[in-house]
Amino acid sequence: MFVSLDGFAAGTYVTLEEPFGEAMALTRGHDGRAIHGIGNIEDITFDGAMASMFDQGIGVEIMGRRKFGPQSGPWTEDGWRGWWGEEPPFRTPVIVLTHHEREPIAFDNGTVFHFLDASPQEALRRARELAPGADVRIGGGPTTVREFLAADLVDTMHLVIVPVTIGVGTRLLEDGIPSAEDFDIRSVTLPSGRTHQLWNRRRGD
Amino acid sequence: MFVSLDGFAAGTYVTLEEPFGEAMALTRGHDGRAIHGIGNIEDITFDGAMASMFDQGIGVEIMGRRKFGPQSGPWTEDGWRGWWGEEPPFRTPVIVLTHHEREPIAFDNGTVFHFLDASPQEALRRARELAPGADVRIGGGPTTVREFLAADLVDTMHLVIVPVTIGVGTRLLEDGIPSAEDFDIRSVTLPSGRTHQLWNRRRGD
């Protein structure tokens, strides 16, 4: 998750041109090889290297509806198949949390969007059925990640603190959720100016 | 490539128990998720994240014979199939440079070792035939990497400077090869004490 210096991980609106609303600055300049098999071959950067964890060992993603598209309310026959064209970067099953369930949408590269009206616990159980033995990525947006954090369902979190301010939007860390004491937190600041943090949940003694 | 503070990337000998000889300390404690689908699920570390670049976009590896096994001279019928058991971490074709060519060895997970007596340029041409459009990883050992560096065939190099001294062995960087002026070099020191460097070849102005 990308977070601004003032704590925002998403803006207040989502449009086709600005999927992150006011928070577009969070991913600007996020270059280098990021996702297996997708993207140009450019200089390899530390930020790109960190992002190359994206699909390592992951068998399924859970995302909020806003990450899938800008619509709200009941689905219409608008032909929307997600932000990513015919090559979504997931290549695995993806659970889209929504109050409006619908039939799955499948792509040739292995990506299959399943639409589920479920609690975080139920969604996680369903994710593990879809990809036994693999890890589950909670892909965002921040509201969805916060729900899983509040339910103590996150073992590892990768934050990228981006040296910009946004001013408005949705915060990832708020109301004491999660408690930093529950995690071993390591930080490193890269030449790009971004600070990457790895949060690993502390295990029992 | 892992390099000690005194510049060594391999020891003077290779045995079944110590594939890096005196340089075993270079990879000690190299934990965290490193290679897609292989290894235990542990805490995710920055070093592990950097290592997760290992297979991103790579379609073939070129390695020296010593990386494949401890033998020298003509091959014997000893049943050796590499250091890695039946799950070699490559999952792609691999070219093993040797003066003693032999039939390929294939594994169920996609790894196929091809044995080739060739110059760096010829090996690279053959690698590109084996994996059109993908990147080629020069996997080591240091002598092999130095040959490709000397021939100006390396676009990107990922070095891990490990805070140990080895005292003897094979150096990676020697005799002014490669010239650091030919590369844009970025460094970051991680909480583990290791310094990772990304060398990207400078392009023409």
TrEMBL record, chains A, B:
Signal peptide range: none
Any single biological process term in GO: riboflavin biosynthetic process
Superkingdom classification of source: Bacteria
Molecular functions per Gene Ontology: 5-amino-6-(5-phosphoribosylamino)uracil reductase activity; DNA binding
Keyword Protease found: no
Residues covered by the Bacterial bifunctional deaminase-reductase C-terminal domain: 2-176
UniProt entry tagged with the keyword DNA-binding: yes
Key words of the record: DNA-binding
Name of a matching Pfam family: RibD_C
Protein name in the entry: DNA-binding protein
